[in-house]
């Protein structure tokens, strides 16, 4: 399956399965809430949904402006960096997408990210460190990866994942508190199951949701690599860019886990998160996949 | 009573289905047109760059008359071509001629290091990439249109939408097709 079209469909299918598991998880936690907590449990669900929807979708609609603030990126114009704009323009033509806003983050660590709620409001940003350490082909590969996030609407996908994970976390959290304070036991409810049985799903569900959210993020990264190759038909450019990133040990200064999934390479220390919680697939694995694409003369 | 409801629902379903398929074909056809005009825009950009480039190289490499003539002729041919095969052929010829011109530049260190030439080189590099990406995007849109024209159910509405298969944009030079990234 060493061609980018097959890789794209595999990753899309797997994202779908993961989102489906997320939905099953939301359903299960709601079931637990209603079974063990009766009417109060049922009341918690719409509350959790509402709070999460407001917080996540607020940041989804303002994603371009919000991320600009959080990463201290500055939007630039053609005159500020004609070469970069030329490269972005090339990828825009290859992708058939509208021209995004281009921004620069003043940071020596090489990295890049894309955001925006839809292709019309897209923004892609590069750190100064990335612009200094990459040649034209590598820069084109990175740009294609970021434009691939825009094309695949990954801001939307991650907002959906964050919403479901948030709902699960909030329901579990509220119910756990109710459990400690004994408020959950509805006296009118007969034939109640022993309430301590609820503790296990309440502890496990948020962990499972976080794992699923990370798995979705990793899928979208692999998908963006494959889509990037469909734009440039040049896996070598992105591969050698990833090798530059792998060799580099500096980490982004204005980093936070809130924006980690935006970057082309995880801005967090590799040791900080285990593989299962990682937002990005291991960079060596991504390089290997691109090498396989290079070996295939069709792609 | 029940039968009429079912029949009406069925008719409504069929009408909506037909509209969706019809619109899909029309949309794909428009995308192909847009793809082709993008190629023409980029070819025009490249043609506009050439006089400047030739003048710059001429200043340093006076005796390479033959190379200049080939570029100028290829450029003239590319600006007059209008049908798709003619545009594609002229495009291929000009790409080849330009490659010859840049090879000449390699032999003149003064030229290679002049800021004017470096700037033109970047302009030409990005334009070559844009041309080849525009070709690639066009061919992808043709691929989706031709698939829709040939596969059921959209193929059933080809007559209604008056849309047919379109030609791929083929450049004769195989090196051009395989290498979208021109290195200088």
From TrEMBL, chain B:
The membrane topology of this protein is: Single-pass membrane protein
Could you list this entry's UniProt keywords, alphabetically sorted: Membrane, Transmembrane, Transmembrane helix
SUPFAM superfamilies for the chain: LemA-like
The protein depicted here goes by the name: LemA family protein
Q: Name one GO cellular component term.
A: membrane
Compartments where located? Membrane
Keyword Transmembrane in record: yes
Record family assignment = Belongs to the LemA family.
């Amino acid at each position: 399956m060493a061609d980018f079209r097959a890789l794209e469909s595999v990753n899309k299918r797997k994202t779908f399965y993961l989102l489906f598991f997320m939905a099953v998880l939301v359903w299960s936690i709601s079931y637990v809430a209603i079974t063990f907590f009766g009417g109060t449990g049922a009341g918690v669900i719409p509350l959790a949904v509402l709070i999460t929807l407001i917080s996540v979708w607020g940041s989804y609609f303002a994603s371009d402006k919000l991320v600009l603030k959080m990463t201290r990126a500055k939007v630039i114009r053609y005159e500020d960096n004609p070469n970069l704009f030329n490269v972005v323009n090339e990828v825009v033509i290859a992708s058939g997408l509208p021209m995004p806003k281009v921004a620069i983050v003043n940071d020596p660590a090489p990295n890049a990210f894309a955001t925006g709620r839809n292709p019309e409001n897209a923004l892609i940003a590069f750190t100064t460190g990335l612009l200094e350490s990459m040649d034209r082909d590598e820069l084109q590969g990175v740009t294609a990866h970021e434009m691939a996030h825009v094309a695949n609407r990954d801001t939307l996908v991650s907002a959906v994942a964050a919403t479901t994970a948030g709902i699960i976390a909030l329901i579990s959290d509220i119910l756990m508190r109710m459990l400690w304070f004994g408020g959950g036991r509805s006296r009118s409810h007969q034939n109640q199951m022993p309430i301590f049985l609820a503790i296990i799903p309440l502890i496990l569900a948020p962990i499972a949701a976080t794992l699923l959210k990370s798995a979705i993020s990793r899928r979208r990264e692999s998908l963006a690599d494959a889509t990037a190759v469909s734009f440039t038909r040049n896996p070598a450019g992105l591969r050698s860019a990833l090798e530059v990133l792998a060799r580099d040990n500096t980490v982004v200064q204005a980093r936070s886990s809130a924006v980690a999934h935006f970057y082309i390479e995880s801005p967090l220390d590799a040791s900080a998160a285990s593989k299962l919680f990682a937002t990005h697939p291991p960079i060596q694995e991504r390089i290997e996949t691109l090498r396989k694409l290079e070996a295939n003369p069709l792609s | 009573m029940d039968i009429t409801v079912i029949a009406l629902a069925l008719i409504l379903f069929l009408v909506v289905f037909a509209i969706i398929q019809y619109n899909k074909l029309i949309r794909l056809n428009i995308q192909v047109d847009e793809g082709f005009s993008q190629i023409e825009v980029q070819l025009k950009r490249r043609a506009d760059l050439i006089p400047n480039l030739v003048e710059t190289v001429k200043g340093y490499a006076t005796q390479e008359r033959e190379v200049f003539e080939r570029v100028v002729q290829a450029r003239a041919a590319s600006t007059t071509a209008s049908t798709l095969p003619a545009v594609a052929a002229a495009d291929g010829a000009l790409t080849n001629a330009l490659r010859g011109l840049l090879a000449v530049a390699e032999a003149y260190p003064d030229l290679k290091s002049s800021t004017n030439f470096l700037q033109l080189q970047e302009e030409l590099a990005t334009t070559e990439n844009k041309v080849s990406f525009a070709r690639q995007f066009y061919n992808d849109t043709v691929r989706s249109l031709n698939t829709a024209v040939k596969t059921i159910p959209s193929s059933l509405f080809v007559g209604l939408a008056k849309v047919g298969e379109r030609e791929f944009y083929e450049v004769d030079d195989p090196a051009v097709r395989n290498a979208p990234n021109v290195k200088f």
